[in-house]
Design goal:
20% strand, rod-shaped, alpha+beta, 14 helices, eight-stranded mixed β-sheet, 681 residues
Length: 681
């Protein structure tokens, strides 16, 4: 299915539960009502709906956080990026925001200070002019002129002309403004200066009192607050506007500004500059600054005893570059250089921060890429692809981790391959074991006067020892025991070849042909044939030790040839005889002579043939079990059954070594010749 927006929305809708749907409906209703109020203000508001909308919004925030933590933050890259944002980016943004707010408030305060001080300078200038004129009038009055008749002459002196440049509309009067000299507590004051609101007119007033011979001389200076006056204030501030407001109710808190409580104030007068424009920004940081300053004003219409409730809100708009001229004016030409240096340092810091951010992102991608490669490698391993290797582009600890993963996977691949080879070998050994079990006699032959038993315990899965019983005729029994060089499959294969050749050669005498009469069977000739067969069909290092004998129940005679094998033991009463006649091992040399030995079997005799694994087990002192102990054990159990004798020998060898682990194959063949003519079951 294509991942279209419609499909994604449908999938999102299917994953939403009933609570999600309910909160979404609440937010939709609230949004619809809010939009309708923009066009239809009479639409009623619901406090309950607002409360439910806030709860729904908070619910979606929590749901969004949980979804982001489950999906977005699952990836290590997203986690590192998020951590880096919270550790580095967010603090820097907060610092920049605080710096921006601080700079804005600083320039706001600076602009307010400039406007306030310029206005105070105008008030002080007016007070200075009034005081100068009062002193001048007092001197003239002392010379005989009446102060009440004095007025500002038509030909204004240079002093007043200069003052009117700073104070447009300046008027000097005598005998007026004495009411402004009364303080809030009713006490008389010698001077007054400040802004005065008389009705709907805002003026700047200064009243000075001087003593004259005729009494007191009151001189009043007034300047109407007009656009012409405001134009003379702080040229660095750009447009300035005086908003004169008077409280509607008496007793209104004087600290509550019109911005916070506009309904509590009525606009009396609004005065603004004319022709002042805000210059364009000189740099990206030269943002517009809008500030406001509150000026005290004396309301002439205020009733006695009431607190002052009228205010003049002087607002202005400017740029930091304009205020910097005022701020750095004491430095002269160095002021611009200082401001420029400050901007350059700030720009350098921003570049460093940006470079740090890029470096952090690059390092984060390096880390997350390595982890992602390792994760993809584990996915390949999980899918069974052990040949996948992690890309190692760098030389760091993560690269070392990648190398370790690659080495581990190489080791795992090798171990799995070894395990596969071992399993294959075990399967082959299991097959070889099954084949070998087929080579051993499935049932012991039954001949009168002979009891047989044979036990072979392999040291490995497959034995290198071979034994066999071949009933040639009803009165002739062939007994074979061989120890193949080596162990495992190779020994088993050689044993199979030996068994096939031996049986093929011996069974020729079963047919009763004149040329192959069993009574004329020569063991040396049979062994010689086996020697040539092994020599010609095996490698040079392959050979076997072998004992081969043929017992005739009628003559009670045993013919045998021992080809390099441990000499079997014949025990009859106290007599012990070793069957050593024969020759060397078979398979090493081509033409090797072998001899045939003959032994008369007495009633009650016992024949024991064995491999070297039965007598070579060592005890904790390194002493072998040995042939003598085997003979003593056989003598003690001479009257027991062949099975009991074989079991006793195996158990004794194991107890001697004290370990269940065999160093070599252990094989024993027992032939017991009882005095009565009985055969083994």
């Amino acid at each position: 299915m294509n991942s279209t927006p419609t499909n994604r929305l449908h999938s999102l809708w299917l994953r939403m539960n009933s609570v999600d749907v309910a909160t979404l409906v609440i937010l939709a209703i609230y949004a619809a009502l809010s939009i309708s109020r923009l066009f239809f203000p009479q639409t009623p508001q619901s406090g309950l709906l607002l409360f439910l909308a806030v709860l729904a919004f908070g619910y979606f925030i929590v749901r969004g956080f949980l979804w982001a933590r489950e999906h977005l933050l699952w990836s290590l890259r997203n986690r590192l990026v998020t951590a880096y944002i919270f550790i580095a980016v967010v603090p820097v943004l907060l610092l920049l925001t605080m710096a921006g707010l601080g700079a804005y408030l600083l320039y706001w305060q600076l602009g307010s200070y400039v406007l306030y001080t310029d206005m105070q300078e105008r008030v002080e200038r007016l007070s200075e002019v009034a005081a100068t004129m009062a002193t001048s009038y007092a001197i003239e009055a002392a010379s005989g002129r009446r102060a009440a008749a004095l007025a500002l002459p038509e030909d204004q002196p240079t002093y007043l002309m200069a003052a009117m440049t700073e104070l447009p509309g300046l008027e000097i009067e005598t005998g007026k403004g004495e009411d402004l000299l009364r303080g809030p507590d009713g006490s008389a004051q010698k001077e007054f200066s400040g802004l005065v609101l008389n009705g709907d007119v805002l003026t700047m007033r200064a009243v000075v009192v001087r003593a004259v011979p005729s009494g007191r001389l009151v001189v009043s200076g007034s300047v109407p607050v007009t656009p012409a006056l405001i134009d003379t204030l702080a040229p660095e501030l750009g447009p300035i506007e005086f908003d004169v407001r008077r409280a509607k109710k008496s007793g209104l808190d004087q600290q509550v500004s019109v911005a916070l409580n506009p309904q509590g104030y009525a606009r009396v007068q609004q005065i603004a500059t004319r022709g002042r424009a805000i210059p364009p920004a000189v740099n990206p940081f030269d943002k517009l600054i809008t500030g406001i300053v509150v000026l005290e004003v004396l309301d002439r219409d205020r009733k006695p005893g009431e607190p002052e409730s009228s205010r003049v809100f002087a607002s202005f708009s400017t740029r930091p570059s304009l205020l910097n001229r005022r701020l750095f004016s004491p430095l002269g030409e160095l002021g611009g250089a200082a401001a420029t240096a400050l901007l350059v340092v700030g720009a350098i810091f921003l570049v460093i921060e940006f470079a740090s951010l890029v470096t952090g992102i690059v390092l984060t991608r390096t880390i997350t890429t390595a982890v992602d490669d390792l994760y993809r490698a584990t996915q390949h391993v999980q899918a069974g692809d052990l040949s996948f290797r992690v890309r190692v582009p760098h030389r760091d600890q993560l690269a070392a981790l990648g190398d370790s993963f690659n080495s581990m996977m190489q080791s795992v691949s090798s171990l799995i391959e070894e395990q596969r080879q071992r399993q294959r070998l075990e399967n082959e050994l299991s097959i070889a074991q099954e084949v070998q079990q087929q080579l051993f006699p499935h049932a012991l032959p039954k001949l009168p006067g002979v009891e047989l038993e044979a036990v072979c315990r392999a040291a490995r899965v497959v034995s290198g020892d071979y034994y066999d019983f071949i009933r040639v005729t009803p009165t002739h029994l062939a007994i074979a025991l061989a120890d193949i060089s080596g162990k495992g499959i190779s020994a088993a294969l050689l044993m199979a070849s030996l068994q096939a050749a031996l049986r093929s050669d011996v069974l020729r005498y079963r047919d009763g042909q004149p040329s192959y009469n069993a009574s004329q069977l020569n063991t040396a000739e049979i062994v010689s044939h086996l020697n040539r067969h092994l020599y010609r069909n095996t490698s040079d290092e392959r050979y076997a030790t072998m004992f081969f004998g043929v017992y005739d129940t009628q003559t009670r005679r045993l013919k045998y040839t021992n080809a390099g094998h441990l000499a079997p033991i014949y025990i009859s009463g106290s007599r012990v005889e070793r069957l050593e006649t024969g020759g060397m091992v078979v398979g090493l040399f081509n033409d090797v002579p072998f001899a045939q030995g003959t032994i008369e079997i007495e009633p009650g005799g016992l024949l024991i043939a064995y491999s070297d694994g039965l007598i070579e087990p060592e005890n904790v002192y390194g002493e072998e079990f040995g042939t003598e102990r085997l003979i003593e054990l056989a003598k003690r159990n001479q009257d027991a059954s062949p099975h009991a004798i074989a079991d006793a020998m195996m158990r004794a060898a194991e107890e001697w070594s004290g370990s269940q682990e065999q160093a070599d194959d252990m094989t024993v063949v027992i032939a017991r010749f009882p005095a009565t003519q009985e055969s083994n079951a």
